[in-house]
Amino acid sequence: MRRSRAGSRARQSADASTLVKMARRLSESGSRIEDQLWQRRLIELINERLARRNDDAIDAALDELAGSSQRAYDDLADIAESCAESTVVDIDGRPHEVVLLALPLLAWSRYRLPTTTLAASVVENLTSQFSGHLLARDTRVAIADHLYSIDQLPEAFSDVRRLTEQLGDAAVERVALHVDPKKLREPIAMLADTRYVLAAIATPAGGPLFHWQELGVDPDAKIGALAAFREQVASVLQPAMTGCRFRVLSPNAFHAALRMADRDLREFSLEAAVAYLKLAYDFSPGGLAAAYGVFGDPEGSAGAEVRVGLAKASDEDEVVEGVVWPLLGDEEEQTLEDVEKALRAVGIVKSVAHTHRFPLEFCDDCGAPLFPNSAGHVVHAEPPEDSEDRPATPLH
Ligand SMILES: [Zn+2]
After folding, report:
1. Residues 346, 266: contact at Cβ < 8 Å?
2. Would you kindly state where each structural domain of the chain is located, as residue ranges?
């Protein structure tokens, strides 16, 4: 027992160090020919791990590179992500490449944002929108019949791969993939958040995924096609999004779509908070005061975010709503400028940028993030007391 465990640990670290070495050599390569060979070998190794549902060596290699070589880290992460979100299936004896797509929505509501099973008619309609507006002629598409929150999406590379395979098989059969909602996590409730529809496209190996990639088609046909797709999808999803305001973003490969949606959610969350204060309490943006600053571990910048406290300008100490604006790898200074710009864009003219770093503090009772007020204290966001309409008062 002991021997085999030690043996497998040793093999694991040998695996990880092979990935690390190859990723370093790839990041140093100056030619496409050298790149491609390293990429091919890395893809083979990673696909072997994913087929065995074993993420450990990949995660260990990424951990090691994160601290030592950003370029090699990016190269390896790119390859691992693209391996996880793609697979190959056979249709009538011909190999087809499958890619997992995510279609993100940004949504906000005074009530709970939905995570729900999509009705068969909605799934069918979405499938037609994908085929009609986006996909190349010889492709097949399958949609998962669930509207996911970010917490419900697979995280580990091998879990992403498993879903890609399930949706790929569904695409072969031209059927929807049924998702059991009981097997998914309960999402964390937020005023504004992302929701996702997942789909897989299968295309004959080497062929186009999208119609604007077909020979003789203007590549810029993509722009109009996406606009039409997003508009149609918004009306198809309307019944699932009752009580929400939402925006449909462009679909993309799984990991890229998630990253894009995380970025777009930042400004959207601020817009949502301001719209909510107007709707629920009739506070106009011009009568609000914002205070913001960087929150994070005092050592280093890991997990750092900007938090924005919103208060009535006449009562600046009482934060009535807060917005979290994650850095997502951006420079702090640039992010603070972006926040200031976004505040102006939503009509808030009174703001204080705190220059010192706040510790990442949360409420002990409900886990809500604490927000800065104009005086630079970190406080709990509380709905205004003099308001007649008082939704969602914290219970503690
Ligand atoms: Zn609390």
Report:
1. no
2. 2-84, 86-262, 282-379
State the distance from the centre of ligand 1 to the C-alpha of 195, rounded, in angstroms: 25
Q: What is the pTM of this model?
A: 0.91
pLDDT in tens, 353-395: 999 899 999 999 988 899 999 999 999 999 887 655 455 544 4
- Residue 315 is inside which H or E element, if any? strand 315-326
pLDDT at position 395: 42
Ligand 1 center to 111 CA (angstroms): 18
> What is the distance in A from the centroid of ligand 1 to the CA of 322?
12
Q: How far is the CA of 218 from the centre of ligand 1 (A)?
A: 54
Scan for tokens 């087929």, then name that residue. Answer: 51
What sign does the dihedral 172-53-83-185 (CA atoms) show?
A: positive
* Cα of 382 from ligand 1 centre, angstroms: 9
- Which ranges in the chain belong to alpha helices (H)? 2-28, 32-51, 56-66, 70-84, 120-129, 157-173, 221-237, 254-281, 332-345
Ligand 1 centre from 280 Cα, in Å? 20
pLDDT at 286 over 50: yes
Q: Which residue bears the tokens 């999803």?
A: 237
Instruction: Report the mean per-residue pLDDT for the chain.
Output: 92
Q: How far is the CA of 138 from the centre of ligand 1 (A)?
A: 53
* pLDDT for res 385: 74
Using the mean position of ligand 1's atoms as its centre, give its distance from the Cα of residue 369 in Å.
8
Q: Which residues contact 110 (CB under 8 A, 6 or more apart)?
A: 191, 243, 276, 279, 280, 391, 392
SS3 131: helix
Distance 370 CA to ligand 1 centre (A): 8
Minimal CA–CA distance to 255: which of 181, 161, 382, 353?
A: 161
288-295 and 146-149 beta bridge pairing: unpaired
